[in-house]
Specification:
Layout (H helix, E strand, L loop, with lengths): L1 H21 L14 E3 L1 H5 L4 H10 L1 H7 L8 H13 L1 H14 L3 H17 L7 E5 L7 E3 L3 E5 L16 H4 L7 H11 L13 H18 L6 H4 L3 H9 L1 H10 L8 H7 L5 E2 L3 E5 L2 H16 L5 H5 L4 H8 L1 H6 L1
Parallel strand pairs: 1-2, 2-4
Antiparallel strand pairs: 3-4, 5-6
Helix pairs in contact: 1-12, 9-10, 10-15, 10-17, 15-17
Length: about 325
């Protein structure tokens, strides 16, 4: 991020350490929470005939229709034949063995979901935890989240040492590690209009920044002991650089008149997935405006410490959050 990155990395590390000390790492342990957690990967391994495959999917209709995308196949027979061939391939056994090595019996993942659901229940008393199902798909699907069901394709999240990995750019695939699963699920809840109220008529870059900033802020509250990197998908070096150069980043957004722009070009530059934002610097990570939006929401919450999380999430006015966060003044100091 220009020469400023090298000059301020040490300052960024110190800043992030101070922030970690201030960040409360607490779960709603007083909230009683039971998770309906089913590991289906072993059931798939036991399938020996096409009839057994049909029977399996008849018991798991959402898995069949959503995660394995039944409707994308021309017929039921084509779906069964292709899936049976995939499940019978030796590579599938390799995926299963690696999944067992990384996730064990799934108890750690189950506990992470339990803690996140307990916090959801704390902030939203009407929240009812969804059933959680884990499965391996042959790298067909990664994560599905709804009010009643979460499905996790564990083979997507085996990490950099896996024999088979999703065919994606490195800056995207690095987010497919096991410690990203629950943060990603909570982020999807945070984006959901049920929790995150937005002005549907506001199509500005700022609106995107604040909407996603609220989602990151929401997700972090559900699992506060996880590092910021597993929410935003940046490396720690990139996070440190962003903190160190937040004034440079903000100035560039202002100079480019990006905040109130509705152009796709501006959104591609600062909001969309890309490895870097060279307009700011070769070390500046993509989606940097969303990271800024997160910082704005944090500052707004700091300025309005008596505002409960659900009330903050209901604020639709992105300009109000920016204005009352005093972010522009803070980064200019």
């Amino acid at each position: 991020m220009n020469r400023a990155l090298l000059l301020f990395v040490c300052a960024a590390i110190l800043f992030s350490c101070d922030e970690d000390k201030e960040q409360k790492c607490q779960y709603a342990e007083g909230m009683e929470m039971t998770v309906d957690f089913k590991s289906l990967e072993d059931s798939i391994q036991l399938i020996q005939t096409k009839k057994q495959l049909v029977d399996f999917f008849s018991r798991h209709v959402a898995l069949r229709d959503i995660f394995f995308a039944r409707r994308s196949y021309p017929s039921d027979s084509a779906f069964v034949n292709i899936l049976f061939k995939k499940f019978s391939h030796p590579a599938f056994d390799t995926l299963l063995m690696e999944t067992k090595k990384v996730f064990g019996d799934g108890s750690n993942l189950k506990e992470e979901f339990r803690l996140a659901f307990a916090n959801m229940k704390y902030y939203y008393p009407g929240f009812q935890p969804p059933r959680v199902e884990t499965v391996i798909t042959g790298l067909e699907s990664d994560l599905f989240v709804s009010d009643t069901l979460i499905i996790v394709g564990l083979d997507y999240y085996l990490g950099k040492n896996a024999k088979y990995r999703p065919n994606m750019y490195e800056y995207i695939v690095r987010k497919y590690e096991k410690n990203f699963i629950v943060p990603s699920a909570m982020l999807l809840y945070g984006i959901d209009p049920k929790y995150n109220h937005v002005d549907m008529n506001d199509h500005t870059v700022l609106a995107d920044m604040i909407s996603y900033g609220k989602a990151y802020y929401f997700a972090k509250h559900m699992i506060p002991c996880f590092p910021d990197s597993v929410f935003i998908g940046y490396s720690q070096k990139e996070i440190d650089g962003a903190y160190a150069n937040k004034d440079v980043i903000w100035k560039k957004l202002i100079d480019d008149e990006a905040l109130f722009s509705t152009s796709n070009q501006m959104k591609q530059r600062y909001v969309s997935e890309r490895p870097h934002v060279p307009e700011i610097g070769n070390e500046c990570p993509g989606r940097i405006a969303l990271w800024v939006g997160w910082q704005i929401v944090k500052e707004y919450a700091s300025q309005h410490s008596q505002t409960p999380l659900p009330d903050l999430m209901k604020i639709k006015d992105s300009q109000k959050i920016l204005r009352e966060s005093k972010y522009s003044t803070l980064v200019s100091q």
